[in-house]
Amino acid sequence: MTANVYQQLEDALYTSLISQFPNERITFPFNNAPEPQTPYIVIDVMRLDAKGREMNSSLATAGVMTIEQVYEAKVRFEVMGEYDDQTIVGDLAHRIEFSLRTPLFQNALRANSLSLMRVDSVDRFPRKRDTKTYMCYQLPAFFAYAVTETQDVGYINDVNIEGTYTDAGREGHIIVNEIIITP
Question: CA dist 154 to 142, 157, 175, Å?
């Protein structure tokens, strides 16, 4: 069974971010819910690319193999807030940018199978909503993300080979073979 990679990645990002910003509202885009009270942070997984080959373990447990795949995830953190609070919203965006590089955040990322690769600069975009103007600060970041899965692949306990082979070039030369595989 293949893991839900996007769900695991979103959970890992959320857990890492909430550990550093426990008092902030954090959500995901396209969640079909009412807009949270501002300011709030949106974690948007923009892209997920598998990098390199998967890594397979030897059979550590009878018939069970561990498979690991590393991905590069492009994530956009958005900090949204009302225009009146733009300094608070901008400050929160820059605190996230700074925190991504701190040892505490790096430890939180590592605990969730994530590693920061690079962070781009924060961009500001005003957005009109109903009768208000909102400020949106976007921070693109790139993470390495490892997904590990175990599969029951079975194994072979014993192989016995016996069979019959008659060599056409030598009269009376017979080899007897039989193949028995015991899972």
Answer: 37, 10, 31
Contact between 152 and 63 (Cβ < 8 Å) = yes
CA 180/CA 56 separation, integer angstroms: 27
Q: What is the pLDDT of residues 91-108, one digit of tens each?
A: 999 999 999 999 999 999
Identify any residues that bridge with 176 across adjacent strands, giving them in sequence order: 164
Per-residue pLDDT of 4-13, as tens digits, reads: 888 989 999 9
Is residue 138 within 8 Å of residue 46, measured between CB atoms?
A: no
Placement of tokens 């080899």 in the chain: 175
Who contacts 130 (Cβ-Cβ below 8 Å, separation ≥6)?
none
Q: How far apart are CA 1 and CA 150, in angstroms?
A: 9
For the entire predicted model, the pTM comes to 0.74
Distances in Å between the Cα of 135 and the Cα atoms of 41, 46, 67, 83, 101 are 12, 20, 43, 5, 24
